[in-house]
Structures are given as C-alpha cells and as structure tokens.
Amino acid sequence: MKNLFCFILIFFTLFGASSLVVHAEGSWYDEWLDTYDERNPDNNTNYDNFKKDLMYYEGIVINSNNESQFMTSFANYVVTNVDDGSFYLTAIQSGVNAYKNGSLSAKGFVTFLNDVCSYSGINYQSLLKETASDLNKDKGYFLIPTLSLSRLNSVYLYNDEYSNFIRGYMADKNLTFVSINKSDNNTQWVSSSVDLSSNYNFVLYNSQLTLAEIESFYRDVVAQSNVYNTVVVGNFYLNNGTSTNVRIDSFNGSSFSQVYFQYGMCYPRWYCLVNTNDSYSFVPLFKNVSALTNYLAGNSSFYSNPLLKDLDLPDDFDYSRLQQIIDNSIHNGDWINSIDLQKIINVCVTDYLESININTRDILLSIQLGLIDNINNEPYLKQIRDLQIINNEKLDILIELIRNGGIGSGGSGSINLDEVSERLDTIISILNKHNLPYIDVDSPDLTDFTDLLMDKFPFSIPYDIYLIVQILGVEPVKPDMHIGFPIMGSEQVFLTSVDLSWFDSIQPLLFWFIDLGYAIFLLMLSFKIIEGVRR
Amino acid sequence: MSFLFNLINWIAELLPDSFISSWIGSHLLGTAQASVILSYVNYFVPVNHLAFMMSLWLPIISAVIVFFLIFNSK
C-alpha cells in the first residue's frame, strides 16, 4: 500500500514539471484582468462587457484528423485589429485574452508560431525574422507585422509566407477559402492576389456585419461558387455586445436556410458554415451539432428537400411555418440540444395534414409515388423512414409487397395517378387481408415519449447524468507541449518541447495500477462507511 | 393510447426544458476547452475507468448503507 502511494506520488511529482507549462499559460488570465483594469478604469467590475466587445470568431473546418488538429489550433487564435494599426492574436483555447498595450504576449505568439510551424513545416526562424524587428524588449511583447490593405481599413493576417501557406493548404485540399470584408457601406468579397484556377480564394478580414450584410455576402459567394467544396471562414463581430442572433445562411438558389451555431458563453456567438463533398467534420467546438451536420450533408436547403417535394404537398402548403418553427427553436436556444430537423419537418407536415383533413390514403399515395420512383434509391427510403409517418416495420412490409407483388415497376414518368391509385388499392387490400394496419398518422410512436422525457426537467435527469458521464469518455490525446523562452538581450527565443512518447510504453501498466489503487481505495472507503453506519 | 400521449404532452408543456443538458451542450461539450482538457487528462489518468468503477460502487454502497440503516438500528 505504501509502495503504491509512493509510486503515485513520484509519478505526479514527475508530471508536475510538465504541468508547469499549463500553469504558466494560466497566468495570462491575471495578465488579461490587469489589462482590463487599465483599459477600463471606469467600469472594471464586469469584464464580460469588455470581453464581448472584443470577441471575434474565426473558424475553419476541414476533413481529416491531423488537419483538424492543426486547424483547431488555428481557430483557437483570434485576430483583432485596433485603431492604432496593430493587432492582437488572442488565444481562445486558454480562455484568455492576452492584451497588453496593443501587442501580443511573447508567450502566446511563440505558442502560436509553434502550432503553425509544427504543422506546416515552415521554418520558425524565418517567420520570427519578420517579427523580430517589432519585438518590444522592455515589455517582452511582439507586435505582429501588419501588411495593411489601406483602402479596406483592414489588416492582412500574419505575413506573406503564412498566408501563402494557408492558401496552398486550401488549394491542396481542394477547399475554397472565403472570408468576408466589410468596407464602409457594403459587404464585399474580393479575390486575393493568389489566383487558384478552379477555386475562389478570398482573404479579407475585419468584418462587423449585420445579418443583412451576411446574407448578401453569401448570396454573392454562393451564386458564384458551388456551395460544395467550399469552406467559409467567418469573422463576425457582434456590435455593442448585443445579443442579436446573427445567422449564416446557406443559399440554394432562391432562398436561405438558416444554419446556426451557438457558442456557449453569454455574449460571443461563434458561427461556422461548411460544405464539402466528402465529409462534414467540424472543429471540436461544433461536434455536438451532429443533427445540423447531417442536415448540411443532405442538402443546402431544406426547402429543396426531396422529401417535401415527393410528398407531393399541395401548393398552399405553408412553408413559412417551417421557417417560423425553426426560428423559434433558434431563439429558444434549443437547436443544438434536441431539435432535429427531421422532427421539425415531421411535426409541420403532420400538423398540416391534420389541418387540411388530408386522408391517409392520400398520404399513402404520395409515399407510394415516391416508392415507385425510387424503389432502388436507399437514401430516399431512409428519408421516408426518418419522416416517421409510417413505422419502419410497416414501411418494410410495404416495400416488400411492392417488390414481390409487382406493384411498382419503376419508371417515374410513365405512371399516371390512376394507375398508381389502382395499385395502391391492391396494396391496401393485401394489407387488410393480412390484417395489417397500413397507416398510422394519429397514433403516436412510442419513441416520442422517451424524447419527451429526455428533454423535460426533472425527467431528463437520468439522461443528463448520462451526458455528464459521457463527457469523461473523451478520446485520450497526447498533449503536444512547446515552451519558448525569450532570451534576454537577444531577439532569439529558446524553444523546447516536452516529448511524451516514453509515456506510451508505461501507460497500460500505470492505468492498471491506478485502477487497482482506486479499487482498493473504494474498498477501504466502503469498510469505513459500513463501520460508521453500523456504529 | 392517444389519450395517454395527449396527457403526457400536456404535462410536458408545463414542465421546463432540461437546463442541465442545455448547459452541458453549450458550456462543456460546446467548448473546445472542456473536451481538449479532458482528452489530455484522459491520456494520463483513466478518468473513464474510474468513473465507471465509481458508477458500479455507488449503488452497492448505497444499498449497503440503506441495509444497515434499516436492519442495524438500535
């Protein structure tokens, strides 16, 4: 027992050294608070007000793991430019804004450069050379070189080499790099100097956009580029810290469907819109919006959702109601947690069908039409399943019947409604013959109950606990630690990194010991508790 | 069935939404910090193992406590 404790003690003492890095970064927070006091002497009690005014977001989303790792690092820095022409790199990940007299803390910048260099292979020194002249030795801060696009009153990011790397990276991955610029009165998107043959490549910053401006921006962009294979890098700023929801809309040719990502804090809201051909992996920030991801994967707009079209809804179907419900969900903040688009559509369609007293036969007719058209089209069938107008088992039976009974022979254009109706009668008669209820609009699915309970307090508590415990099961990631020490009296920075590869070999054994120790601990605790209770 | 559903629906409308899960979604899962830090922690300490063991232990010890409170009281 003693040995075990000694082992654990020694182990954590060893790791105390590496954890110093984290503590060192933690001190940025105090630094930032001090900065806040300096900048806002009149109102320094509520630094949230200050923080929200300076919050920007910049996010990039890409495909594979390594890329996302890098891009996560990239997205974790916020570039803010200020009136005097300099600008800040702000580390979001540490939850800290490293402001100090219009410059970035050396520590933060070195970490940032390390992130960039370790991924891109760009020589650190060559990047540093660009910035060395701006090193403020007295305060230990760097100023980032500014290549100002004066007519736009905005600042080019980092330097040429880095910008080129980003562009090359995007071109390499066949991604389009789009960003937003706002000039005085109108929003523009402007081609950058590097022209990629088949891609649009835009790099511009400093947006303080209203919803209308964002809309018009996306109209422009989407009109000129395919939505697919496009990465939109948003850099949005909420003026005056208002809690107005700014939305990014994807454009399907005639209308926008709204995509909304909310970042957790009270005021800053982070947005990101991504559409690529292959996959839709978001940076970790957005991992919990899988419903939205699926939605994006399906279509650029749900107005053009084949599901709705093929349901053959009459012309007077109130599409605005769908939008209204989604708007309400967004304003209630429900979107991320529980609102599934399919569910919304389901509710709307069902409501609508009830309101116009459409009979089950007609619904079946429209589904039957879809089935005949798409009998071999699995994605379509999946969508019908998701709609949940008829139960899965019944749908399966229906499909089976159509396949075996020769009812649907395919050929979308050649089948007229009478013919389908006739075949439908056959289906219904077969279903009746086997005593199968063929449609089930009125009686709710049992899964509705569980959904209901999961969302509502206090019935949601078990599910909430499940969620909390689930958080602990994050995939372990080896920390990539870099430390940079500015050398006094010199412009050089001494760089070192903590190599943890040795830990991989002892990890299983260590985990075994920790598990064992914990089990013993629980056992001893149990004895103690039992003794206490018995007394 | 339909009546039951309507009843539950009516009750559900009166109940507040789960603020816990929304808090988790927006503050923990929604942030890079929580997941990143936890993934680092998980690399050094098997937090998920420990949580699992705790989840096994808690009901057992609770049952034991309840047992002794009932049958061992003076």
Overview of the structural elements:
With about 525 residues, chain A is mainly α. Chain A is built from 18 helices and 16 strands. A 3-stranded antiparallel sheet of chain A has the order 3-4-5. In chain A, strands 8-11-14 form a 3-stranded mixed sheet. Chain A has a two-stranded antiparallel ribbon with strand order 1-2. The N and C termini of chain B lie far apart (about 50 Å). Classes of the chains: A mainly alpha (about 525), B mainly alpha (about 70). The interface between A and B is large, with 62 and 51 residues.
How do the strands and helices of this protein lay out in sequence?
The complex is a heterodimer of chains A (535) and B (74).
Chain A lengths: L1 H38 L7 H8 L10 H11 L1 E5 L5 E5 L7 E2 L2 E3 H15 L3 H9 L8 E2 L4 E3 L4 E3 L3 H13 L3 E3 L2 E2 L4 E2 L22 H14 L5 E3 L15 E4 L4 E4 L13 E3 L14 H9 L7 H5 L8 H14 L8 H15 L4 H14 L4 H10 L4 H14 L11 H17 L13 H9 L5 H12 L8 E6 L6 E6 L2 H34 L1
Parallel strand pairs in A: 8-11
Antiparallel strand pairs in A: 1-2, 3-4, 4-5, 6-7, 9-10, 11-14, 12-13, 15-16
Helix pairs in contact in A: 10-11
Chain B lengths: L1 H13 L4 H10 L3 H13 L2 H25 L3
Write a short abstract of this structure.
The complex is a heterodimer of chains A (535) and B (74). Chain A is mainly alpha-helical and 535 residues long. Chain A has helices at residues 2-39, 47-54, 65-75, 106-120, 124-132, 160-172, 211-224, 290-298, 306-310, 319-332, 341-355, 360-373, 378-387, 392-405, 417-433, 447-455, 461-472, 501-534; strands at 77-81, 87-91, 99-100, 103-105, 141-142, 147-149, 154-156, 176-178, 181-182, 187-188, 230-232, 248-251, 256-259, 273-275, 481-486, 493-498.
Beta-strand share of residues of chain B: under 5%
Structural class of chain A: mainly alpha
Radius of gyration of chain A equals 29 Å
Q: Largest interface, per-chain counts?
A: A-B, 62 and 51 residues
